[in-house]
Amino acid sequence: MSTIDTGLSLIRNASQRVSRANGRMGNAFKGWMPTGLYARALLIMIVPMVVLQTVVAFVFMERHWNTVTRRLSAAVVQDIAALIDVYKTYPQDKDRAQVRRIAQRLQLVVDFLPAGDMPPPGPKPFFSLLDQTLSVQLGRQIGRPFWIDTVGRSNLVEIRVQLDDSIMRIFALRSAAYASNSEIFIFWMLGTSTILLIVAVLFLRNQIKPILRLADAAESFGKGREAPNFRPRGAREVRRAAQAFLEMKARIERTIEQRTAMLAGVSHDLRTILTRFKLELVLLGEGPEIDAMRKDVDEMSMMLEDYLAFARGDSGEISQPTDMAMALEELRNDAERHGHTATVAFHGLPVVTVKPASFKRCLGNLVSNAARHANTISITGHRDHRYLTVTVDDDGPGIPADMREEVFKPFLRLDDARNQDEGGTGLGLAIARDIARSHGGDIMLGDSPMGGLRATVRVPV
């Protein structure tokens, strides 16, 4: 392998490691990020504001507050050092009137205490820039034992310096040694930011509401329900999306209405022809051939009804609160009337908003499919805060796992497992799944604990 190939291999491996590390960091970051649009928009607003304020506060503290406080404290300590020099230079000034007069011009109050020990250190605040800067300046410019108190008096700073024969006590204005407007700056910065953030949150919530209403309307339409109070609101882009949704909804409803009208006409024409066949068969009298023809006509009528029901779907029916426990009980009674053993159980609040007739047809197709190939049927319903789940179990032969999706295709029948003499058009499961999906749910097939097939219907409530 040449040197160039080795270098390219190293670069390729390094880029792959960087890509994997970037992917892991991206996944970890996504785990911390909120999922809602409202929370993400707030985060987009809050994070830059916090970063900006942090940078501004750091720069202000470092460049203005600290620097100004250090210079003010140095100036006060310089004045104190000058007073000490005057005190040492004029020992003939026994009553220290000259020192007091000079201190008064420097906006300081000076008196002298008898020589002795300094007071014990007083309590200090957790973070006191004034204590730190004064201590540094006193140690640097005076170099004598000192004691300071920045807490005892609100607007004065007390400083004591030990001299050879006495203790000089100085009272200085806090504003002369400390940049006192810093807290006001931080307070106004945080206060105005909080007010702006509250206004932004209120404004953002009003901008998010139309999007949430659009999502609720689309979800209701997907479940086959109406959203009567929905209309385009909010920003221009949100209004465009809402208007596009309404136009799409109108086109879908118009297509369904046209298909329903066409199917109604076809149904009327075909039923007319079948009625003529039946009348002609009645006029022909009795006989084996006539009975076979009557059976074919009846089978054609049943097939026609199934085809039209599949093509028509559940159009035109309005969703309304339905007692699902009572509906399941009616299915059990129908199964027992046809000679099957059936049990029913329901858990949770039984009232669910569905299209009653079509949803009952969905469950009825599943129960009739189980009754056609099994002796015992178990129907179980469960409703929680999100879904209504209905399971239909039987003890029949079941359906192979690799065919459980194929049986939902229209007109498909498992010929090797179904008796052709039983009739049927192969549309029962297709109609059932179409109805479940029109409610925003679906149907899944699996193994039943009874040994046969389990059909599970789950729709959102």
Write the layout of secondary structure elements.
Blueprint: H1 3-32, H2 37-89, H3 97-105, E1 108-114, H4 129-141, E2 146-149, E3 156-162, E4 166-173, H5 174-177, H6 182-222, H7 236-284, H8 288-312, E5 320-323, H9 324-337, E6 341-347, E7 351-354, H10 356-373, E8 376-383, E9 387-394, H11 428-438, E10 442-447, E11 453-460
Parallel strand pairs: 6-8
Antiparallel strand pairs: 1-4, 2-3, 3-4, 5-7, 8-9, 9-11, 10-11
How many H/I helical runs? 11
Q: Which band does the percent of strand residues land in?
A: 15-25%
Task: Please outline the major beta sheet.
Answer: 5 strands, mixed
Radius of gyration: 44 Å
Q: Which range best describes the helical content: under 10%, 10-25%, 25-40%, 40-55%, 55-70% or over 70%? A: 55-70%
Low-confidence stretches: 416-422
The SSE string, one letter per element, is: HHHEHEEEHHHHEHEEHEEHEE
Strand element count: 11
What is the rounded distance between the termini?
Answer: 66 Å
Strand order of the largest sheet: 6-8-9-11-10
The overall pLDDT, averaged over residues, is 80
**Morphology call:** rod-shaped
Task: Produce a short descriptive summary.
The protein has 461 residues and is α+β, with helices and mostly antiparallel strands. It has helices at 3-32, 37-89, 97-105, 129-141, 174-177, 182-222, 236-284, 288-312, 324-337, 356-373, 428-438; strands at 108-114, 146-149, 156-162, 166-173, 320-323, 341-347, 351-354, 376-383, 387-394, 442-447, 453-460. The strands form 3 sheets. A 5-stranded mixed beta sheet has the order 6-8-9-11-10, covered by helices on one side.
